[in-house]
Amino acid sequence: MTVPPEKDAYGQMMLATLHGEDNVLEIVERDDGFINASVMGPKLYLAPFRRWPAHHRRAMRLVRGRVLDVGAGGGRVSLHLQERGHDVVALDNSPGAIDVCRRRGARDARLLDFADIDESLGTFDTIVLLGNNFGVFGSPTRAKRLLRKLRRLTSDDARIVAESRDVSSRGGADAPWHVAYRERNVERGRLPGQLRIRIRFRNIIGPWFDYPMVSPGQMREILDGTGWHLERTIDSDDTYVAVIEKTSAT
Amino acid sequence: MTVPPEKDAYGQMMLATLHGEDNVLEIVERDDGFINASVMGPKLYLAPFRRWPAHHRRAMRLVRGRVLDVGAGGGRVSLHLQERGHDVVALDNSPGAIDVCRRRGARDARLLDFADIDESLGTFDTIVLLGNNFGVFGSPTRAKRLLRKLRRLTSDDARIVAESRDVSSRGGADAPWHVAYRERNVERGRLPGQLRIRIRFRNIIGPWFDYPMVSPGQMREILDGTGWHLERTIDSDDTYVAVIEKTSAT
Protein backbone atom coordinates (compact mmCIF):
# COMPACT_ATOMS: atom_id res chain seq x y z
CA MET A 1 0.00 0.00 0.00
CA THR A 2 1.23 3.48 -0.74
CA VAL A 3 0.97 6.25 1.84
CA PRO A 4 -2.14 8.48 1.51
CA PRO A 5 -1.11 12.11 0.84
CA GLU A 6 -2.67 13.34 4.11
CA LYS A 7 -0.44 10.94 6.07
CA ASP A 8 2.71 11.49 4.02
CA ALA A 9 4.90 12.93 6.78
CA TYR A 10 8.06 11.57 5.15
CA GLY A 11 7.23 13.05 1.74
CA GLN A 12 6.37 16.47 3.16
CA MET A 13 9.64 16.43 5.09
CA MET A 14 11.50 15.67 1.85
CA LEU A 15 9.66 18.46 0.01
CA ALA A 16 10.45 20.96 2.80
CA THR A 17 14.12 19.94 2.57
CA LEU A 18 14.09 20.32 -1.22
CA HIS A 19 12.58 23.80 -0.79
CA GLY A 20 15.54 24.73 1.41
CA GLU A 21 13.57 25.19 4.65
CA ASP A 22 15.75 25.64 7.71
CA ASN A 23 16.21 22.99 10.34
CA VAL A 24 14.05 20.28 8.82
CA LEU A 25 14.13 17.35 11.20
CA GLU A 26 13.30 13.72 10.66
CA ILE A 27 11.22 12.74 13.68
CA VAL A 28 10.82 9.00 14.14
CA GLU A 29 8.46 7.55 16.75
CA ARG A 30 8.69 3.91 17.81
CA ASP A 31 5.66 1.96 19.00
CA ASP A 32 6.93 1.89 22.61
CA GLY A 33 6.80 5.70 22.68
CA PHE A 34 10.52 6.18 22.07
CA ILE A 35 11.05 9.21 19.88
CA ASN A 36 14.06 10.77 18.23
CA ALA A 37 14.77 13.56 15.80
CA SER A 38 17.65 13.90 13.37
CA VAL A 39 18.92 16.89 11.45
CA MET A 40 21.22 14.68 9.39
CA GLY A 41 18.53 12.42 7.90
CA PRO A 42 16.90 14.93 5.56
CA LYS A 43 20.31 16.28 4.48
CA LEU A 44 21.68 12.84 3.61
CA TYR A 45 18.56 12.01 1.58
CA LEU A 46 19.44 14.76 -0.90
CA ALA A 47 23.23 14.58 -0.62
CA PRO A 48 25.46 14.43 -3.69
CA PHE A 49 27.70 11.35 -4.05
CA ARG A 50 30.80 13.03 -2.60
CA ARG A 51 28.97 13.66 0.70
CA TRP A 52 27.79 10.10 1.16
CA PRO A 53 29.24 7.89 3.91
CA ALA A 54 32.19 5.86 2.61
CA HIS A 55 30.42 2.49 2.79
CA HIS A 56 27.56 3.84 0.64
CA ARG A 57 30.06 5.00 -1.98
CA ARG A 58 31.77 1.61 -1.89
CA ALA A 59 28.43 -0.15 -2.26
CA MET A 60 27.86 1.65 -5.57
CA ARG A 61 30.77 -0.29 -7.11
CA LEU A 62 28.70 -3.44 -6.82
CA VAL A 63 25.88 -2.10 -8.94
CA ARG A 64 25.58 -3.39 -12.49
CA GLY A 65 23.01 -3.28 -15.29
CA ARG A 66 19.40 -2.25 -14.80
CA VAL A 67 18.64 -1.05 -11.25
CA LEU A 68 15.65 -0.96 -8.93
CA ASP A 69 16.21 1.66 -6.17
CA VAL A 70 13.87 0.65 -3.33
CA GLY A 71 12.79 3.33 -0.85
CA ALA A 72 14.34 5.91 -3.16
CA GLY A 73 13.51 8.82 -0.83
CA GLY A 74 15.05 12.00 -2.21
CA GLY A 75 16.45 10.05 -5.17
CA ARG A 76 20.17 10.39 -4.39
CA VAL A 77 20.99 6.78 -5.36
CA SER A 78 18.85 6.86 -8.51
CA LEU A 79 20.30 10.17 -9.65
CA HIS A 80 23.87 9.02 -9.08
CA LEU A 81 23.37 5.75 -10.95
CA GLN A 82 21.52 7.49 -13.80
CA GLU A 83 24.53 9.78 -14.20
CA ARG A 84 26.76 6.75 -14.37
CA GLY A 85 24.65 5.46 -17.25
CA HIS A 86 22.44 2.93 -15.53
CA ASP A 87 18.80 2.45 -16.39
CA VAL A 88 17.15 3.04 -12.99
CA VAL A 89 13.63 2.68 -11.61
CA ALA A 90 13.17 4.70 -8.38
CA LEU A 91 10.51 3.17 -6.14
CA ASP A 92 8.87 4.67 -3.06
CA ASN A 93 5.52 4.36 -1.28
CA SER A 94 5.57 8.09 -0.39
CA PRO A 95 3.90 10.41 -2.95
CA GLY A 96 6.03 13.33 -1.72
CA ALA A 97 9.26 11.37 -2.08
CA ILE A 98 8.37 10.38 -5.66
CA ASP A 99 7.52 14.01 -6.37
CA VAL A 100 10.98 15.02 -5.08
CA CYS A 101 12.69 12.27 -7.15
CA ARG A 102 10.97 13.54 -10.31
CA ARG A 103 11.68 17.20 -9.63
CA ARG A 104 15.33 16.36 -9.15
CA GLY A 105 15.49 14.57 -12.48
CA ALA A 106 14.84 10.88 -11.83
CA ARG A 107 13.71 9.56 -15.25
CA ASP A 108 11.54 6.72 -14.01
CA ALA A 109 10.13 7.19 -10.49
CA ARG A 110 7.18 5.03 -9.43
CA LEU A 111 4.79 5.46 -6.55
CA LEU A 112 4.42 1.83 -5.55
CA ASP A 113 4.71 -0.42 -2.53
CA PHE A 114 7.73 -2.75 -2.80
CA ALA A 115 5.43 -5.72 -2.19
CA ASP A 116 3.37 -4.80 -5.26
CA ILE A 117 6.15 -4.88 -7.85
CA ASP A 118 5.57 -7.20 -10.81
CA GLU A 119 6.73 -8.11 -14.33
CA SER A 120 5.42 -4.82 -15.72
CA LEU A 121 8.55 -3.12 -14.32
CA GLY A 122 10.79 -5.34 -16.46
CA THR A 123 13.83 -7.30 -15.31
CA PHE A 124 16.55 -5.97 -12.99
CA ASP A 125 20.22 -6.76 -12.52
CA THR A 126 20.63 -4.96 -9.20
CA ILE A 127 18.20 -4.16 -6.42
CA VAL A 128 19.48 -1.39 -4.11
CA LEU A 129 18.15 -0.79 -0.57
CA LEU A 130 20.56 1.65 1.10
CA GLY A 131 20.05 3.53 4.38
CA ASN A 132 18.81 0.58 6.46
CA ASN A 133 16.30 -0.11 3.71
CA PHE A 134 16.58 -3.86 4.12
CA GLY A 135 13.79 -2.86 6.52
CA VAL A 136 11.54 -2.12 3.52
CA PHE A 137 11.27 -5.89 3.07
CA GLY A 138 9.16 -5.76 6.24
CA SER A 139 8.56 -8.73 8.55
CA PRO A 140 10.53 -11.96 7.91
CA THR A 141 7.41 -13.61 6.42
CA ARG A 142 6.83 -10.73 4.02
CA ALA A 143 10.53 -10.58 3.21
CA LYS A 144 10.68 -14.27 2.24
CA ARG A 145 7.67 -13.90 -0.06
CA LEU A 146 9.18 -10.80 -1.69
CA LEU A 147 12.60 -12.40 -2.12
CA ARG A 148 11.05 -15.35 -3.97
CA LYS A 149 9.16 -12.94 -6.21
CA LEU A 150 12.39 -11.00 -6.84
CA ARG A 151 14.03 -14.14 -8.23
CA ARG A 152 11.51 -14.06 -11.08
CA LEU A 153 12.00 -10.33 -11.72
CA THR A 154 15.80 -10.39 -11.91
CA SER A 155 18.49 -11.67 -14.27
CA ASP A 156 20.45 -14.85 -13.51
CA ASP A 157 23.46 -13.06 -12.02
CA ALA A 158 21.42 -10.43 -10.18
CA ARG A 159 22.46 -8.86 -6.88
CA ILE A 160 20.65 -7.25 -3.97
CA VAL A 161 22.68 -4.53 -2.22
CA ALA A 162 20.90 -3.88 1.07
CA GLU A 163 21.87 -2.07 4.26
CA SER A 164 20.91 -3.08 7.78
CA ARG A 165 22.29 -2.98 11.29
CA ASP A 166 22.80 -5.35 14.18
CA VAL A 167 20.75 -3.70 16.92
CA SER A 168 22.40 -5.73 19.68
CA SER A 169 25.86 -4.25 19.08
CA ARG A 170 25.28 -0.78 17.63
CA GLY A 171 26.12 2.34 19.61
CA GLY A 172 23.66 2.93 22.44
CA ALA A 173 22.43 -0.69 22.34
CA ASP A 174 22.84 -1.03 26.13
CA ALA A 175 20.52 1.87 26.97
CA PRO A 176 17.67 0.47 29.11
CA TRP A 177 14.96 1.82 26.76
CA HIS A 178 16.53 -0.06 23.81
CA VAL A 179 17.13 -3.25 25.80
CA ALA A 180 13.48 -3.21 26.96
CA TYR A 181 12.27 -2.72 23.40
CA ARG A 182 14.25 -5.67 22.05
CA GLU A 183 13.01 -7.90 24.88
CA ARG A 184 9.42 -6.81 24.25
CA ASN A 185 9.80 -7.68 20.55
CA VAL A 186 11.19 -11.14 21.34
CA GLU A 187 8.34 -11.80 23.78
CA ARG A 188 5.93 -11.04 20.95
CA GLY A 189 7.65 -13.44 18.58
CA ARG A 190 9.30 -10.66 16.59
CA LEU A 191 12.95 -10.14 15.74
CA PRO A 192 14.63 -8.06 18.48
CA GLY A 193 15.33 -5.27 15.96
CA GLN A 194 11.95 -5.49 14.24
CA LEU A 195 11.13 -1.82 14.65
CA ARG A 196 7.57 -0.65 14.35
CA ILE A 197 7.85 3.06 13.62
CA ARG A 198 6.16 6.06 12.08
CA ILE A 199 7.42 9.39 10.77
CA ARG A 200 6.06 12.70 12.04
CA PHE A 201 6.37 16.08 10.42
CA ARG A 202 4.58 19.24 11.57
CA ASN A 203 0.99 18.06 12.19
CA ILE A 204 1.22 15.07 9.84
CA ILE A 205 1.41 11.66 11.49
CA GLY A 206 2.64 8.93 9.15
CA PRO A 207 1.25 5.37 9.20
CA TRP A 208 2.93 2.76 11.40
CA PHE A 209 5.15 0.34 9.52
CA ASP A 210 7.43 -2.58 10.31
CA TYR A 211 11.08 -1.80 9.60
CA PRO A 212 13.32 -4.64 10.82
CA MET A 213 17.01 -4.18 11.52
CA VAL A 214 18.80 -7.52 11.32
CA SER A 215 22.24 -8.95 12.04
CA PRO A 216 24.00 -10.83 9.23
CA GLY A 217 22.96 -14.09 10.94
CA GLN A 218 19.31 -13.07 11.06
CA MET A 219 19.53 -11.99 7.43
CA ARG A 220 20.86 -15.44 6.46
CA GLU A 221 17.83 -17.02 8.12
CA ILE A 222 15.48 -14.74 6.19
CA LEU A 223 17.29 -15.54 2.92
CA ASP A 224 17.27 -19.28 3.59
CA GLY A 225 15.07 -21.13 1.08
CA THR A 226 14.37 -18.03 -1.02
CA GLY A 227 17.01 -18.71 -3.70
CA TRP A 228 19.24 -15.89 -2.43
CA HIS A 229 22.27 -15.97 -0.13
CA LEU A 230 24.46 -13.49 1.69
CA GLU A 231 27.69 -13.35 -0.34
CA ARG A 232 29.54 -10.77 1.78
CA THR A 233 29.16 -7.57 3.79
CA ILE A 234 30.66 -4.08 3.61
CA ASP A 235 30.90 -2.89 7.20
CA SER A 236 30.69 0.58 8.71
CA ASP A 237 30.84 1.55 12.38
CA ASP A 238 27.12 1.30 12.83
CA THR A 239 25.64 -0.58 9.89
CA TYR A 240 26.62 -2.99 7.13
CA VAL A 241 25.76 -3.30 3.47
CA ALA A 242 24.86 -6.86 2.52
CA VAL A 243 25.74 -8.15 -0.92
CA ILE A 244 23.10 -10.76 -1.65
CA GLU A 245 23.38 -13.01 -4.70
CA LYS A 246 21.29 -15.60 -6.42
CA THR A 247 21.86 -19.19 -5.41
CA SER A 248 22.16 -21.46 -8.47
CA ALA A 249 19.12 -23.68 -8.90
CA THR A 250 20.05 -27.21 -7.79
CA MET B 1 0.17 18.56 40.73
CA THR B 2 3.83 17.72 40.25
CA VAL B 3 4.94 15.41 37.46
CA PRO B 4 5.38 11.74 38.47
CA PRO B 5 9.02 10.63 37.95
CA GLU B 6 8.04 8.04 35.31
CA LYS B 7 6.47 10.78 33.19
CA ASP B 8 9.15 13.39 33.77
CA ALA B 9 10.32 13.77 30.16
CA TYR B 10 11.33 17.39 30.74
CA GLY B 11 13.38 16.57 33.83
CA GLN B 12 15.17 13.66 32.19
CA MET B 13 15.98 15.90 29.22
CA MET B 14 17.46 18.48 31.63
CA LEU B 15 19.50 15.80 33.42
CA ALA B 16 20.83 14.46 30.09
CA THR B 17 21.84 18.00 29.15
CA LEU B 18 23.54 18.50 32.53
CA HIS B 19 25.45 15.25 31.98
CA GLY B 20 26.78 16.64 28.72
CA GLU B 21 25.03 14.19 26.41
CA ASP B 22 25.28 15.05 22.73
CA ASN B 23 22.40 16.40 20.71
CA VAL B 24 19.78 16.50 23.43
CA LEU B 25 16.58 17.76 21.83
CA GLU B 26 13.48 19.26 23.38
CA ILE B 27 10.60 17.54 21.60
CA VAL B 28 7.25 19.26 22.09
CA GLU B 29 4.01 17.66 20.89
CA ARG B 30 0.82 19.71 20.57
CA ASP B 31 -2.63 18.15 20.99
CA ASP B 32 -3.40 18.47 17.26
CA GLY B 33 -0.44 16.19 16.49
CA PHE B 34 1.93 19.03 15.59
CA ILE B 35 5.41 18.18 16.75
CA ASN B 36 8.69 20.03 16.83
CA ALA B 37 12.16 19.49 18.20
CA SER B 38 14.68 22.08 19.27
CA VAL B 39 18.41 21.79 19.92
CA MET B 40 18.46 25.29 21.40
CA GLY B 41 15.95 24.72 24.19
CA PRO B 42 18.06 22.45 26.41
CA LYS B 43 21.15 24.62 25.85
CA LEU B 44 19.37 27.84 26.83
CA TYR B 45 17.98 26.23 29.99
CA LEU B 46 21.53 25.87 31.35
CA ALA B 47 23.07 28.94 29.72
CA PRO B 48 25.18 31.42 31.73
CA PHE B 49 23.91 35.03 31.83
CA ARG B 50 26.20 36.25 29.03
CA ARG B 51 24.59 33.78 26.60
CA TRP B 52 20.99 34.77 27.34
CA PRO B 53 18.90 36.63 24.76
CA ALA B 54 19.16 40.40 25.23
CA HIS B 55 15.56 40.86 26.42
CA HIS B 56 16.08 38.25 29.14
CA ARG B 57 19.18 40.09 30.36
CA ARG B 58 17.25 43.38 30.33
CA ALA B 59 14.40 41.78 32.27
CA MET B 60 16.78 40.97 35.12
CA ARG B 61 17.20 44.71 35.82
CA LEU B 62 13.58 44.77 36.95
CA VAL B 63 14.10 42.19 39.65
CA ARG B 64 14.27 43.39 43.24
CA GLY B 65 14.16 41.83 46.69
CA ARG B 66 13.10 38.27 47.39
CA VAL B 67 12.38 36.27 44.24
CA LEU B 68 10.16 33.36 43.22
CA ASP B 69 11.49 31.78 39.98
CA VAL B 70 8.52 29.92 38.49
CA GLY B 71 9.23 27.04 36.09
CA ALA B 72 12.87 27.27 37.09
CA GLY B 73 13.93 24.49 34.69
CA GLY B 74 17.71 24.20 34.71
CA GLY B 75 17.93 27.02 37.27
CA ARG B 76 19.69 29.63 35.13
CA VAL B 77 17.54 32.53 36.43
CA SER B 78 17.75 31.40 40.06
CA LEU B 79 21.52 30.91 39.91
CA HIS B 80 22.08 34.30 38.29
CA LEU B 81 19.92 36.12 40.83
CA GLN B 82 21.49 34.24 43.74
CA GLU B 83 24.89 35.41 42.51
CA ARG B 84 23.59 38.95 42.45
CA GLY B 85 22.66 38.57 46.12
CA HIS B 86 18.94 37.91 45.91
CA ASP B 87 17.16 35.44 48.12
CA VAL B 88 15.58 33.11 45.53
CA VAL B 89 13.11 30.23 45.67
CA ALA B 90 13.29 28.08 42.51
CA LEU B 91 9.98 26.36 41.77
CA ASP B 92 9.25 23.59 39.28
CA ASN B 93 6.76 20.74 38.97
CA SER B 94 9.42 18.49 37.40
CA PRO B 95 11.44 16.35 39.85
CA GLY B 96 14.33 16.14 37.36
CA ALA B 97 14.42 19.91 36.89
CA ILE B 98 14.54 20.47 40.66
CA ASP B 99 17.31 17.88 40.89
CA VAL B 100 19.27 19.82 38.24
CA CYS B 101 18.66 23.15 40.04
CA ARG B 102 20.03 21.69 43.28
CA ARG B 103 23.05 20.03 41.66
CA ARG B 104 23.92 23.34 40.03
CA GLY B 105 23.80 25.15 43.36
CA ALA B 106 20.29 26.58 43.76
CA ARG B 107 20.00 27.12 47.54
CA ASP B 108 16.23 26.77 47.80
CA ALA B 109 14.64 24.66 45.05
CA ARG B 110 11.12 23.32 45.62
CA LEU B 111 9.26 20.58 43.78
CA LEU B 112 5.80 22.15 43.77
CA ASP B 113 3.02 23.05 41.35
CA PHE B 114 2.70 26.83 40.95
CA ALA B 115 -1.01 26.55 41.86
CA ASP B 116 -0.10 25.00 45.22
CA ILE B 117 2.13 27.80 46.56
CA ASP B 118 1.10 29.24 49.90
CA GLU B 119 2.24 31.37 52.86
CA SER B 120 4.76 28.73 53.94
CA LEU B 121 7.08 30.00 51.16
CA GLY B 122 7.18 33.48 52.72
CA THR B 123 6.62 36.79 50.96
CA PHE B 124 8.11 37.74 47.57
CA ASP B 125 9.04 41.05 45.95
CA THR B 126 9.44 39.68 42.43
CA ILE B 127 7.88 36.71 40.63
CA VAL B 128 9.86 35.72 37.52
CA LEU B 129 8.38 33.61 34.69
CA LEU B 130 10.86 33.80 31.79
CA GLY B 131 10.89 31.69 28.62
CA ASN B 132 7.17 31.94 27.78
CA ASN B 133 6.46 30.89 31.33
CA PHE B 134 3.44 33.15 31.63
CA GLY B 135 2.01 29.89 30.28
CA VAL B 136 2.67 28.26 33.67
CA PHE B 137 -0.31 30.28 34.97
CA GLY B 138 -2.40 27.87 32.83
CA SER B 139 -5.90 28.62 31.57
CA PRO B 140 -7.31 32.16 32.08
CA THR B 141 -9.54 30.91 34.92
CA ARG B 142 -6.65 29.28 36.73
CA ALA B 143 -4.46 32.33 36.04
CA LYS B 144 -6.97 34.75 37.63
CA ARG B 145 -7.24 32.59 40.76
CA LEU B 146 -3.47 32.35 41.04
CA LEU B 147 -2.94 36.09 40.49
CA ARG B 148 -5.36 36.87 43.34
CA LYS B 149 -3.50 34.46 45.57
CA LEU B 150 -0.17 36.04 44.56
CA ARG B 151 -1.38 39.41 45.85
CA ARG B 152 -1.47 37.93 49.34
CA LEU B 153 1.99 36.32 48.99
CA THR B 154 3.80 39.44 47.78
CA SER B 155 4.96 42.79 49.17
CA ASP B 156 3.07 46.03 48.40
CA ASP B 157 5.35 47.11 45.56
CA ALA B 158 5.81 43.61 44.11
CA ARG B 159 6.32 42.88 40.43
CA ILE B 160 5.66 39.95 38.14
CA VAL B 161 8.15 39.69 35.27
CA ALA B 162 6.60 37.24 32.80
CA GLU B 163 7.32 36.32 29.18
CA SER B 164 4.75 35.45 26.56
CA ARG B 165 4.18 35.79 22.83
CA ASP B 166 1.46 36.95 20.50
CA VAL B 167 0.80 33.82 18.44
CA SER B 168 -1.07 35.75 15.72
CA SER B 169 1.98 37.78 14.71
CA ARG B 170 5.01 35.66 15.53
CA GLY B 171 7.16 34.15 12.79
CA GLY B 172 5.41 31.29 11.02
CA ALA B 173 1.97 32.39 12.28
CA ASP B 174 0.49 32.13 8.77
CA ALA B 175 1.40 28.48 8.29
CA PRO B 176 -1.84 26.55 7.69
CA TRP B 177 -1.19 24.11 10.56
CA HIS B 178 -0.85 27.01 13.04
CA VAL B 179 -3.87 28.90 11.65
CA ALA B 180 -6.00 25.74 11.91
CA TYR B 181 -4.85 25.21 15.50
CA ARG B 182 -5.76 28.74 16.60
CA GLU B 183 -9.21 28.43 14.95
CA ARG B 184 -9.78 25.06 16.62
CA ASN B 185 -8.93 26.62 20.01
CA VAL B 186 -11.31 29.54 19.48
CA GLU B 187 -14.11 27.14 18.45
CA ARG B 188 -13.59 25.35 21.76
CA GLY B 189 -13.82 28.57 23.77
CA ARG B 190 -10.09 28.71 24.38
CA LEU B 191 -7.62 31.50 23.69
CA PRO B 192 -6.17 31.10 20.18
CA GLY B 193 -2.69 30.59 21.65
CA GLN B 194 -3.83 28.35 24.51
CA LEU B 195 -1.43 25.54 23.70
CA ARG B 196 -2.06 22.10 25.05
CA ILE B 197 1.30 20.35 24.86
CA ARG B 198 3.47 17.62 26.28
CA ILE B 199 7.20 16.98 26.32
CA ARG B 200 8.72 13.78 25.02
CA PHE B 201 12.18 12.43 25.70
CA ARG B 202 13.43 8.99 24.67
CA ASN B 203 10.57 6.66 25.66
CA ILE B 204 9.15 9.01 28.32
CA ILE B 205 5.91 10.76 27.44
CA GLY B 206 5.17 13.78 29.65
CA PRO B 207 1.66 14.66 30.86
CA TRP B 208 -0.46 17.04 28.76
CA PHE B 209 -0.64 20.56 30.14
CA ASP B 210 -2.19 23.90 29.17
CA TYR B 211 0.43 26.50 28.28
CA PRO B 212 -1.23 29.65 26.93
CA MET B 213 0.63 32.20 24.83
CA VAL B 214 -1.11 35.56 25.02
CA SER B 215 -0.90 38.97 23.39
CA PRO B 216 -0.51 42.01 25.67
CA GLY B 217 -4.25 42.69 25.14
CA GLN B 218 -5.21 39.17 26.19
CA MET B 219 -2.89 39.46 29.18
CA ARG B 220 -4.65 42.67 30.27
CA GLU B 221 -7.98 40.83 30.21
CA ILE B 222 -6.56 38.05 32.36
CA LEU B 223 -5.10 40.58 34.81
CA ASP B 224 -8.36 42.56 34.96
CA GLY B 225 -9.92 42.35 38.43
CA THR B 226 -7.01 40.46 39.98
CA GLY B 227 -5.30 43.47 41.56
CA TRP B 228 -2.46 43.39 39.01
CA HIS B 229 -1.95 45.43 35.83
CA LEU B 230 0.39 45.40 32.85
CA GLU B 231 2.77 48.30 33.45
CA ARG B 232 4.93 47.91 30.33
CA THR B 233 6.57 45.39 28.01
CA ILE B 234 10.14 44.64 26.91
CA ASP B 235 9.87 43.42 23.32
CA SER B 236 11.99 41.00 21.34
CA ASP B 237 11.45 39.81 17.77
CA ASP B 238 9.33 36.90 18.77
CA THR B 239 8.21 37.37 22.37
CA TYR B 240 7.79 40.06 25.01
CA VAL B 241 8.48 40.31 28.69
CA ALA B 242 5.57 41.80 30.61
CA VAL B 243 6.23 43.92 33.66
CA ILE B 244 3.17 43.45 35.83
CA GLU B 245 2.64 45.56 38.93
CA LYS B 246 0.22 45.71 41.82
CA THR B 247 -2.76 47.99 41.42
CA SER B 248 -3.28 50.10 44.54
CA ALA B 249 -6.33 49.01 46.48
CA THR B 250 -9.12 51.54 45.81
Identify the notable features of this structure and list them briefly.
seven-stranded mixed beta sheet; globular; 250 residues; alpha/beta; homodimer
Word description of this protein:
The structure is a homodimer of 250-residue chains. Chain A has 250 residues and is an alpha/beta fold. Chain A has helices at 9-18, 40-45, 54-60, 76-83, 95-103, 140-152, 176-187, 216-223; strands at residues 26-30, 35-38, 67-70, 88-92, 109-111, 124-129, 154-164, 194-201, 204-205, 209-212, 228-235, 240-246. The first copy, chain A, is globular. In chain A, the strands form 2 sheets. In chain A, strands 5-4-3-6-7-12-11 form a 7-stranded mixed beta sheet, with helices on both faces. In chain A, strands 1, 2, 8, 9 and 10 form a 5-stranded antiparallel beta sheet that branches. The model of chain A has no long low-confidence stretch (mean pLDDT 96).
Task: Chart the SSEs and their pairings.
2 copies of one chain form a homodimer.
Chain A: H1 9-18, E1 26-30, E2 35-38, H2 40-45, H3 54-60, E3 67-70, H4 76-83, E4 88-92, H5 95-103, E5 109-111, E6 124-129, H6 140-152, E7 154-164, H7 176-187, E8 194-201, E9 204-205, E10 209-212, H8 216-223, E11 228-235, E12 240-246
Parallel strand pairs in A: 3-4, 3-6, 4-5, 6-7
Antiparallel strand pairs in A: 1-2, 1-8, 7-12, 8-9, 8-10, 11-12
Helix pairs in contact in A: 1-5
